[in-house]
Protein: histidine kinase
Amino acid sequence: MAKTRTLQQTLLLRVVPLTLVALIAIVWVTRYSIRRTVAQEVSNRMQQNATITAIALADRLNLLRGTAKTLAANDLLINSIVDKSQREGQLVVFLRSLQLPSPAFRHVTMLDYRGRAVMTNGNANPLPVERFIETVMSGQDYFEIDEDSILIVAPVQYGGSPEAALAIEYDTTVFLDDFLTTDFDHEAQLFDEGQRLYRSSEFNLGDDRWIWASRALPGYPGLQIRQSERQSVAFGSIKNLDLFFLGVLAACAASLILAVSLVTRGSTRQLSLLAEQIQEIQEDNDLSRLVDVNETSEFQSLSDSFNRLIDSLSQTTVSRDLLQSSENRLRAVVDHAPGGIIGTDHSGTITLVNDATENIFGYDRSELIGRPITMLIPDALSNPDDTNDTVDLHPQFSFRSWDGVRPAAGRRRGGEAVFLEFGLSPVEWSDGSGLLATVVDVTKRRQQQQENERLRRETQLILDSIPATVLFKDRHNRILRVNRAGAEMVGLPPEQIEGHSTGDFFADYHAYYKDDLEVMRSGKPRLGIIERVSIENKDTRWASTDKIPIFDAEGELAGIIAVINDITELKNAQAELEEATRVAKESEERLRLTVRSASIGMWDWDVGTSNVRINRELSMQLGEELAYENFEGWQRRVHPADLPEVEKAIGDCLEGRATDYESTFRMRHRDGSYRWILSRGKLAERNDDRPLRMIGVHIDITDRKINEVALQRANLELKRSNDELAQFAYVASHDLQEPLRKITSFCELLDEECEGQLNEDAQRFMKYIVDGAHRMRTLIQDLLSFSRIESQGKPLVDVDANDAARRALENLSHAIQESNAQVEIDDLPVVRADPTQLAQLFQNLIGNAIKYRSEAAPRVHVCGESRHDKWVLSVSDNGIGIDPKYHKQIFGVFKRLHSMDTYKGTGIGLAICRRIVDRLDGEIRIESEPSKGSTFYVEIPRPVETQDKADAMIQMRLNEIETTADA
Structure:
């Protein structure tokens, strides 16, 4: 048998380990948190130091570059460009004596515009010519750093353009050693795009781990400074952290063990005292004694529990005496129960009845004992579910009871029928099995129910005859009654509605119930509530609802009656009337504002009386303040030369020869001048084919007539300008190109005649002359093409863009084969354009895509699509791309982004493209980035049928006037 532990041992073995585990967890979390915080502070310090160093180093490099720029601006250097003799004089002395204060300074060199060293005070390293020309000769300073040297080249400008350069070289190691200090625990390194240029320490760093932080130099892409520090130095402040926590953990463990020992010692002494008192009660068999250990509340509660147990045992003997008394009371309750109680044996013979049973059936108790229960209730032993199945009362079968009570018919003394509620349950008597039946006389209740049912049928008949929906609801929003109209509204039979809440059928039942509560609270009806009725799977209807409170016989609130009349058709008719009224007002206001804002005069002519009613705008056109005019007065204002034509147009409309009236004429103003008027109208009323009324508008078109004259003059001036441009084109194509052709021919002839006799310089000069003449001819031809876009352009017709693109490819076939280009053309639309100029547009765009190519073979994609009312043609390539800041400049004349030596051309091609697109009322734009190719988009309007805007507006106003007059 295992040895039983004491309470003190148990507490020590269970409490101490768990507490130690918790302490260790707390110590570990605290240690981890402290180390993480210190690591974050070290990281922040390293990042901050690296940032400061990067900024300081960038500032020092900027200072060196500023020094070079300052020296390049020296008057002596600038004057040397003008007077080259100074290179042998003062300039030599200046450069050889130049010593910069930096210990890293090596030498300074004077360069010419080709990047060649002209003069130096040391051994100058050669400078890449291409990069020199690309940067320094474009006005920018040049900066380069490697493991050995730092080179800074500043342009020397004369007359606003770079003519020479000054190069200063520094020792990289000396410069950075003087700037970046280090020791055994720290070091610094400088990197350029992944390649280390400088390291501050070359000694063995050992096996210790290092932490580092790097930062890019501001303004020097690719340059990074990295600073490192030994991990043991960075985290030296927390070396003794583990020893401190171990000491704390040991102290806590010792304190815990001592505390548990002291607590358990007092507890075991009190338990021993309690055990001794219980043992004494057991030996003396004295249940009247009580235990008493009250040194602490816990042991006092334990003592009380033992005392209650002893008291319960002492009271068990008392319960036996009370049992007999309880049986006597139960017998008295059965005898005086308000309902009848009948007990039988297993055969159904009555063995027990109470006083209520005697009163219900009219028999004496002695007359019933020993008689079968079927004498009182004939179907007492029948199965309620099947009258031919009787209840088996044999002892070996289990008795059954019916759920609740059931109606049954009984017989009184003398054979009188009585209506009963009958319940039957099997019981176990002291002498065997039997039945216990309960009976209640419900004869009067049944008669009342029949009367109530008759009244309900009559009431329901009345409710169903009402066409409106009628709901009877209780105080809890349950529907108790509903008529036929209400059932039809919900779409369910009444029995599926009654007994349910209105929330089961109506979506907005919360709002309805709020009105119900107000009626029930005030006790006053609310009539004519206009509300929406929303039922699931049915259209929302409008209803007028009356809610009336209902009180019971005692005057207590029983619920409300809601009478709901469907007024949807009435609301729809009202809404249609309101909408028609609103539309009429808006139309009238819109017409009034439109006429006023457009300064359109309106007239209404009564043909029978010859009176003409005019609006304020028409009177202002005449310079008068008139509201009425007669036809004869109106005729007198019309210019005599225009009057016959006006009267003819009016007569045609009145006699039915024309549907509408329209005429343009001059009308005399109050100041004596004539205003041009456009008048339109139509017949508004007829009587037996006789015109009665005519309405129309007056529009002052004097400004338009003036503009038409001005436009005619401008067209004449444009024609004259085009004729002069054509004359210039003729002169340029013949008189200007003829000398160039002679220069080219004679130079080629001279080259053939003197073949072998010209030296190398003469041959090169001859080639310059021929190339210059060819470029001049190309420039003249491009200028002619640019100038002839408008003057010699063909009429715009429908052109298949596929044909234009194919003609462009035929013209570019040599360039395509030479560059191995791939040109893909999708199915293009038919556009409104000049066929020749559209082909030139494609040729210029595709040609540029082939010319400005990268090292890869050119790939060009031409496609077209429809966007809204425009055709969008696009030409995409994989070329060198264009910086977005030049996107607008490239469409100007002579705008080039590259030198003639790099890409040949005149800089007019894209300007021609823009002018061609402008002639089509279109737009050309570019999307491109360097090294990512370019896409040119050409948007050309799609042809649409148009009409005069003023005529369209006038026709719209006449239609509105006609609609208003008809209304």
